[in-house]
Design brief:
single chain, mainly alpha, Nitrile Hydratase, Chain A, 47% helix, globular
Length: 197
């Protein structure tokens, strides 16, 4: 299901309607194509996975921050300047050697935009949304994230009221590695829980 491992999914009826609506709004002069491109650019480069990666890296190097993050994700994330629409109530889930957390939104595609940017296509797909709940170990393995039978998998269902961010386990990178270098190791998929570092 990962974008790296599968062909692009066919355009859904909703996506087709959005494309037609966008073209009509541009044609009528109500919307500028540059505005749309600017918004996409903003979410890809300003409000994106790099923000979540900074949160994760800080938690890895600062135990006090990590404790605040796990106790009140929204407030701790705001300490780093991230928050707003789609990130009003954030809960952070810590992966451990005994527990692997993964996030899904079974109803639609609720997603923490301020820390993860735009959701990947597979996150919004009905197969991911339904199968992750029914057979998470199988779906994770298909996505390249094999989780041992001795590890508990917890599936968390995002909603309009709460969104989740997975705090992956820190990789063996040495204690002297900088916060910036650690942030560079963090992927969007690891913060959803469908990949490890």
């Amino acid at each position: 299901m990962s974008e790296d491992h599968h062909h692009r999914l066919p355009t859904t009826p909703v996506e087709a309607r959005v494309e037609v609506l966008e073209a009509l709004l541009i044609e009528k002069g109500i919307l500028d194509a540059g505005t749309v491109d600017g918004l996409v650019e903003y979410y890809e480069h300003q409000v994106g996975p790099m923000n979540g990666a900074k949160v994760v890296a800080r938690a890895w190097i600062d135990p006090d921050y990590c404790a605040r993050l796990l106790a009140d994700g929204t407030a701790a994330i705001a300490e780093l300047g991230f928050g707003g629409v789609e990130g009003e109530h954030m809960v952070v889930l810590e992966n451990t050697p005994q527990v692997h957390n993964v996030v899904v939104c079974t109803l639609c595609s609720c997603y923490p935009w301020p820390v993860l940017g735009l959701p990947p296509n597979w996150y919004k797909s009905p197969p991911y949304r339904s199968r992750m709940v029914r057979e998470p170990r199988v779906v994770l393995a298909e996505m390249g994230c094999a989780v041992g039978d001795d590890v508990e998998i917890r599936v968390w269902d995002s909603s309009a009221e709460v969104r989740y961010l997975v705090l992956p386990m820190r990789p063996e990178a040495g204690e002297a590695v900088s916060e910036t270098a650690l942030a560079d190791l963090v992927t969007r998929d690891s913060m959803i829980g469908v990949a490890r570092l």
